[in-house]
Specification:
With 382 residues, this protein is α/β, with parallel strands linked by helices. The chain contains 16 helices and 18 strands. The protein has helices at residues 17-32, 62-74, 99-104, 137-144, 146-153, 163-167, 224-228, 234-238, 253-258, 266-269, 273-281, 292-296, 304-311, 339-351, 353-367, 370-381; strands at 4-8, 36-42, 49-51, 56-58, 81-85, 90-92, 108-112, 128-132, 157-160, 180-181, 202-207, 214-216, 219-221, 242-247, 262-264, 285-288, 316-319, 333-336. The strands form four sheets. An eight-stranded mixed beta sheet has the order 6-5-2-1-7-8-9-10. A hairpin with a 2-residue loop joins strand 12 (214-216) and strand 13 (219-221). The protein is globular.
Length: 382
Amino acid sequence: MRLRVVVLGYVVRGPIGGMAWHHLQYVLGLARLGHDAWFVEDSDDYPGCYDPSRHVVDTDPTYGLAFAADAFGGLGLADRWAYHDAHGGGWTGPAASRAPELCRSADLVLDLSGVNPPRPWLLDAPRRALVDTDPVFTQLRHLQDEDARRAAALHTHFFSFGEGIARGGAVVPDDGFPWRPTRQPIVLDAWPVTPGPADGRFTTVMQWDSYPAREHAGRRYGMKSDSFAPYADLPTRTGRAFEIALGSESAPRDRLRARGWTLRDPLEVTRDPWSYRRYLRGSKAEFSVAKHGYVAARSGWFSERTAAYLACGRPALVQDTGFSAWLPDGAGLLPFSSPDEAAAGAEEIERRYAFHCRAAREVAEHCFDSGAVLNGLLEGIG
């Protein structure tokens, strides 16, 4: 059955290559399945438009609108998006004249990360699914912020990248919502495999501190900055080349360089979806820690960025959040929970590099293919 699905997300306000791919693949994947898929974004009522060219956050969406036009147009979705500017601009984008009616007539509103306010035109859809991409922190927000909880309660279905919440084993605070597991859909033909550079670097794109750590019931849930220290000596320990496209002003860049890390400007790497994809494909493999909160809660969260590395045929050496209980590991995907395991994983990728490149793509095909992920999500909604 062909469904009209409106995807809510964060592209105009967050014009960053990796973040854009996260949203684009929902719209593109649904369209590939034959559904009538649209993307709608709202400015919200506070200044939230990031402009990397001016290094400001304000109410001006000019940069983000141009970014969105390039991103959607580059994937054959040029007429499939609209932006509501609550700061006096009204509706804009190719689908501006149709956007309110598209939302009201939708069979499903798919709300990614809950970053759009619950406007009246969204509430007529019979199914409104919230996709939690930041497990632990989403649940804490619902427990600590009544407005966030009320907005979440307007949804009819609840899915989370924290697969451990639904599968068991996670120690995520219970916010009372019936979370079911889902994961990032990857449109595989948008990530063609190229030969991996055996002499390349282990890379990642990373925010040192995304926002302040949270506390609940005597437990602290931190950021990647809290996870990184045990792995700071990995370049010197292994003799391998490691690089981070590193964001946030709090990052200790001089100390990291002194320990052998190469640092890149993340705005250069993530300038648009295409520069981001080139960066991943130009990497030998990914190495990344996870947010401390994801690990401490055994959430089972798995990065949409890592899924894209795998789709490119790039092995992923990533910190285990509990996902190893259900995702295949040891070939292409190598989880670690200690510096010794991380060092051993780097050596294993070096030793059998071509094997792990092939296996990485196979993991993406078996576990993140957009058709299977999105069909599973739609079936879960009924």
